[in-house]
Amino acid sequence: MAAHTAPDELTSPSIDPDEVAKFSAMAAEWWDPDSKFKPLHKFNPARLTYIRDQILAHFDRSPGDKPLSGLRILDIGCGGGLIAEPMARLGGSVTGVDAAEANIKTAMVHAEEHNLEIDYRCGTAEQLLESGEPLFDVVLNLEVVEHVADPDQFLTDCAKLVKPGGMMIVGSINRTSEAFALAIFGAEWVMGWLPRGTHRFSKLVKPEEVYRVLREQTFEVSTAVGVGYNPLNDQFSINSDASVNYLLSASKAA
């Protein structure tokens, strides 16, 4: 989720007929695997597998047609819905929140085009918390923490949105020399996978910093796993090296 000025209140935007074509075009770009969102599409299969497996293990469920049925899932910083839609297809009751209204409207149009019911809102975790929204079984906090003004407060707010006994999954980029070389210099300046300036090294958050905040909020946190890229097959996969991209899951005390 990129840095944007959020509205004063959490809103559920409506789209009038004159806007449909514009946001359909934006949705087409978000969901085009060869667009500027190509890195997310390459990255998505690995992280979706991790997310699904962590949720199933936490709630002691077996894979099936709709294994996430009955679970309320929040995708905070949902962008165009690249994670929210698969979660809905797996049976989850999904709420997607993003500070950028254009992202939300884009996600709404794409979900409607594919007959998916997803509750999209424009706003922030803080506003969602202040609104008195019922708590969630799962909060997905993916590629967001490195873009917010106060990572500790953001993580704390997200933690408070999780039901007792629920879970959060966090994904981000580590603040290491390896991450600078590969995720910033390599991906942005050499490969051109992302616009230059998408990530600032000083804003990156280490897994240990996430551990600290979540443990303060009564979470048991798993050791972070890495997401590595293999140029030979042009694919990402989960591994044990969290020095660049990482994912971790955290369980809230019941």
Structural summary, described in words:
The chain is α/β, with parallel strands linked by helices. The protein has a single domain (17-175, 205-252), classed as Vaccinia Virus protein VP39 (Rossmann fold, 3-Layer(aba) Sandwich). It has 8 helices and 9 strands. The protein has helices at 17-30, 38-58, 84-89, 101-113, 125-130, 151-160, 177-190, 207-216, and strands at 72-76, 93-98, 119-122, 136-142, 162-173, 219-221, 225-230, 235-239, 245-252. Strands 1, 2, 3, 4, 5, 6, 7, 8 and 9 form a 9-stranded mixed sheet that branches. Helix 3 (84-89) links the parallel strand 1 (72-76) and strand 2. Helix 1 (17-30) crosses helix 4 (101-113) and helix 6 (151-160) packs across helix 8 (207-216). The longest helix has 21 residues, at 38-58. The chain is globular and about 45 Å long.
